[in-house]
Specification:
Length: about 140
């Protein structure tokens, strides 16, 4: 699967995510207002045995943040900012602010120490698309302080 195929799949998920509101959001534990994570898609990739495409929509309230975390060791992640602005840091890279329409990726095994709404007054929305081993069920694990 190449990046353009992944981006096309992500675009489909953005449309589908709006129709999947019945899936329960999963709150995160943080001192800042918590984000909500809504599953949007889980699909085995038929031409890559043992791999799945998993997508989630992350809604950040104003000032909201995710706790520092790592993802499944097999996970390649494509992140796309749907609305608002997200401050993000992957591994020891620079913190960056990504606005609606911008994207980033996380290689397998990456740490994500910063993922939060860059605004204290407006909500933000992020689409995270994982290419992951089908057996990996824990997509995100908090990093202890």
């Amino acid at each position: 699967m190449n990046i353009s195929s992944l981006a096309a799949a992500a675009a489909v998920v953005v449309v589908a995510a709006g129709t999947l509101g019945a899936l329960a959001p999963l709150p995160a534990a943080a001192h800042e207002p918590a984000e909500s994570v809504t599953p949007a898609l889980k699909q085995a990739i038929p031409n890559i045995p043992g791999k799945s495409l998993v997508a989630v929509v992350v809604d950040y309230p104003p000032g909201g943040a995710s706790p520092a975390h790592v993802h499944a060791k097999s996970a390649f992640i494509y992140g796309y900012v749907v609305a608002g602005a997200i401050e993000s840091q992957v591994n020891d890279g620079p913190k960056q602010i990504l606005r609606a329409g911008e994207s980033f990726y996380e290689p397998p095994g990456a740490k994500h120490p910063v993922s939060r709404n860059a605004s204290k007054t407006r909500p933000a929305k992020l689409l995270a698309v994982f290419v992951v081993d089908t057996d990996d069920t824990a997509l995100t694990t908090p990093i202890p302080h």
